[in-house]
Amino acid sequence: MSLVYSSYYCLTSMLKALVTIIVFLIIVCVQDGLSDDAFYGGTTHVRVYNGMNDSIPVHLHCRSKDDDLGQHVLAVGEHQEWSFGTRVFGNTLFWCTMDAGNVHASFEIYNAKTEVATCNAQCNRILNNDGGYFFNEYSGYWEKRLSWHVTKTPSF
Length: 156
Prior knowledge:
By secondary structure, the protein is of the alpha+beta class. The protein folds into 2 domains: 1-35; 43-147, Sandwich (Immunoglobulin-like), CATH 2.60.40. The protein has helices at residues 2-35, 112-115; strands spanning 43-50, 58-64, 68-74, 79-85, 93-100, 103-111, 122-128, 131-136, 141-147. A 5-stranded mixed β-sheet has the order 4-1-7-8-9, with no helix packed on it. A 4-stranded antiparallel β-sheet has the order 3-2-5-6. It is elongated and about 90 Å long. It starts with a helix and ends in a 9-residue tail after the last strand. The relative contact order is 0.16. Residues 28-41 have low confidence and may be disordered.
């Protein structure tokens, strides 16, 4: 009887230790993932191109709730790019203000709630004279999501 009790006690002690180690490892992994707003290392890259005609520069200022990416002046063909860790609850939102020729516009450039259906790791956008286009990596085509009409400002 004491051998059975001793074996039972040893087995339950080992099981408790194993469960404690597993719980500790799970907590460490989750905390490590949350510390840089990433969960299991997922990273998203957003790239915004200036696709204007007539050599029109784009003054672009993008930000999120946590990050201000600053003002960038993009010549035709240039791009601005940034990366961030995928958030656990998918609530990342970046928006931009743009000045190009005669147009001043503010718009969402990345919204995790809607982008899940169009891009995963690389989210490409292009700002053209007639609007903003977002590349759908799953269907392989550009979707027009923003509309404007940029004309070249006359120089005197």
